[in-house]
Structure formats: C-alpha cells, structure tokens
Amino acid sequence: MDFILYEVNGAVGTITINREKALNALNSQVLEELDATLDAVDLDAVRCLILTGAGAKCFVAGADIGEMSTLTKAEGEAFGKKGNDVFRKLETFPIPVIAAVNGFALGGGCELAMSCDIRICAENAVFGQPEVGLGITPGFGGTQRLARLVGAGMAKQMIYTARNIKADEAFRIGLVNAVYPAEELMAQAQKMAGGIAKNAPIAVRNCKKAINEGLDVDMDKAIVIEEKLFGDCFETEDQKYGMAFFLDKNKEKVKEPFKNC
Ligand code: DAK
Predict the structure, then answer these.
(1) Domain encompassing residue 216
(2) Are residues 126 and 211 in the same domain?
(3) pLDDT of residue 76
(4) Which residues lie with the beta carbon below 6 Å from any ligand 1 atom?
C-alpha cells in the first residue's frame, strides 16, 4: 500500500490515509487501497476502527482535484462510483468506525468523516463542502449525509455557501461529538474505541445495523428491524455471560472479556 497505513492495537484497528504531500486528497489509488484495507480487517480480532489522516494539518482535503479536472463524463461516473462504494462500505462496515479528524475535512474529506459512525476532532479541524465553488455538487453522499446529521437547513447553508466551519461550530451543530487539543485526539479516539471494543461485539454490531437500517425506513418498519436484531443477540455466549454476570451476586468476581460468539 502506498497511501494507507493500517495498524492494530488490541481490538482496535487504525487506518491512516497517508498522502500528506497532497493533504491526503482522495485519488483513485487511495480509494482502492482504502477499499482493500477494509476487506482485510480481521473481524474476529478487531472490534472498532479509527480512521484518520497523516500529519498535523489535514484529515482529507477532498477528492483529488488534479485527477478530477481531466475526467470525461464516463470517467467521472466511474470515479464517483469507486468513492461511493467505499464510503458505503465504511458506513455499513460491521463494526463501528470513529473518524478522528485532525485538520481539514473538506469536500470528500467531510463526506468520508460523515460515512463513519462517530466523529471527534482536533481544535484545528475545519469542515466544509466547497464543491459548488468548483462547479460540482457534493458527490460522495454529502447532500444526503450532512442533511441527516445536522438537519436540512444547516446542511443547505453549508453546501450552498461553500463556507468552511471550524471545530467549535462543527460541535455546536452536531457534526462532531467532541473537540480535543490536537495532541490528545488520537489518545481520545483510542480510549473511545477501547470502550466500545470492551462491550459485547455481536450486540454492538447489531446496534449499528439497527440504527443505520432503522433510519432509512418509517418507525413501524424500524421497530421490526430492532426486534429482529434484539432477538438475534439471544443464545449467544456473550448474552448468556453478560446477563449471568449481572445476576451473580458475587461482587468480587471480575468481568471476563466478551468472546464474540
Ligand atoms: N486535491 C489535490 N491536491 C490537493 C487538494 C485536493 N483536494 N488539496 C490540497 N492539495 C495539494 C495542493 O495542490 C498542494 O500541492 P503542491 O502545490 O504542494 O503540489 C498541497 O496539497 C498543499 O496544499 P496547499 O498549498 O493548498 O495548502 P494550504 O495550507 O495553502 O491550503 C487547503 C490548505 C486545504 C485550504 C487547500 O489545500 C484547499 O483548499 N484544498 C482544496 C480543498 C477542496 O476544495 N476540497 C474539495 C475537493 S472537491 C464525485 C464525488 C465526490 C467528489 C467529486 C466527484 N463524483 C460522484 C463524481 C468530491 C469532490 C471534492 O472533494
């Protein structure tokens, strides 16, 4: 891999987009490597992912404008599909993904962060959808995911004006869950990921599925999705152990790690 770093620390995997010279801009190769990295994640061992960008300045400065500038309509469509497929893979990835946004998250970079389950950022983070200034619409799900995350009015303002917002505003509108000093960001991401990884993996996966799939349908259908995924947790070793541990009155007993089965 030229542009993606992947490391595993306990049950937490960290994917770093590593194209610092171009502010981690997403060209076809980065998208292909990100796709291959996700396919290679060992889901028996890894229970939460962190996604970040290399360097102190940038998460991802968007799709690669140099590469896009010469695309034909057909090539543009193929590039868009490559991006959309990998962003959707991330969004529906079986385990949670935390975006640790360490600087600029513009255009496709903001859209990439929005494909993750949770966003936290450094104080120097900047978010924006500058596409209309480039003569295009946000094409990696920005018009859809931003509106779902921050509401249609705020999403329309950000997208129509192409104005960037800083970390404090991103926090205020609910685009990120927390803001940290840059030097603390990765430790905080690890801490949150570690906390998620300690919980029953099948239950966590089913929660992700229930929230994602439930948001796409009306409440009557959403409740049925929840019921099914709730039921699926029963008879798992983790459910039996988690409930037996609670019911055991021996307060000296230390909770064992969940086994993912
Ligand atoms: N693409 C390519 N190179 C980029 C880049 C980008 N998005 N962003 C930065 N770079 C490169 C710069 O060209 C420069 O390269 P050298 O000149 O050193 O070779 C290097 O990174 C450092 O950048 P700057 O010199 O500009 O650094 P500054 O600190 O002055 O500025 C900045 C930082 C982040 C404010 C600035 O670089 C900037 O505004 N970058 C562009 C941000 C942007 O407009 N991003 C949105 C891109 S549009 C589609 C689906 C999705 C999309 C498109 C199509 N389909 C469905 C077909 C997505 C579109 C986008 O994301």
Answers:
(1) 201-247
(2) no
(3) 87
(4) 22-23, 25, 61-66, 68, 76, 79-80, 83, 104, 106-108, 130-131, 134, 136, 139-140
Please state, in angstroms and rounded to a whole number, the distance separating the CA atoms of residues 208 and 227. 14
Mean pLDDT of the chain: 96
Residue 244 CA to ligand 1 centre (angstroms): 53
Residue by residue, DSSP assigns 176-233 as -SEEE-GGGHHHHHHHHHHHHHHS-HHHHHHHHHHHHHHHTS-HHHHHHHHHHHHHHT
Tell me the whole-structure pTM to 2 decimals. 0.96
Q: What is the pLDDT of residues 234-261, one digit of tens each?
A: 999 999 999 999 999 888 889 898 988 8
58 Cα to the center of ligand 1, angstroms = 10
What is the rounded distance in angstroms from the CA atom of residue 88 to the CA atom of residue 97? 12
Are residues 141 and 69 part of one domain?
Answer: yes
Q: Which of 7, 75, 111, 184 is catalytic?
A: 111
